[in-house]
Amino acid sequence: MLKIASVLISTAYPTFGSNTPVVVDGDYHYTNMFDVVVDSFYSALEKLNYGGANVYVAETGWPTRGNPPYTSVENARTYNQGLLKKFTMGSTRATLRRPNVPVVTFFFEMTLFTPNMIPVYDMWNISVSSWVL
């Protein structure tokens, strides 16, 4: 559980592990924080009359250390694999506000290697029953 402004939030929400909506914004029911952040930018752009602009996520990831228990190898693995699964499962590449616009995203591999360049974990080895690339 994460404590944000005296509210407890399950780590499943930011790491793509929630199956039920955590945030409801009108007709939009969000199960992960990534989509909320991207859709917040879309909403802000619409209010500035730039609704046709695309949003590119230049960097996203999860740290492996620094503030335990929230920063851990396991949480980083869960986040990165959840994000990878989102972008390899077809229709989930987009967000609720723009369901037909895939979000271009770049992974930021925060401390995923030891000083000897040995991977901390295998980020790309996830089990997905059907791949749609």
TrEMBL record:
Gene3D superfamilies: Glycosidases. One of its GO terms (biological process) is carbohydrate metabolic process. Pfam families: Glyco_hydro_17. Its EC number is 3.2.1.39. It catalyses: Hydrolysis of (1->3)-beta-D-glucosidic linkages in (1->3)-beta-D-glucans. It comes from the Eukaryota. SUPFAM superfamilies: (Trans)glycosidases. Keywords: Glycosidase, Hydrolase. GO terms for molecular function: glucan endo-1,3-beta-D-glucosidase activity. InterPro entries: GH, Glyco_hydro_17, Glyco_hydro_17_plant. Belongs to the glycosyl hydrolase 17 family. This is glucan endo-1,3-beta-D-glucosidase. The lineage of its organism: Eukaryota, Viridiplantae, Streptophyta, Embryophyta, Tracheophyta.
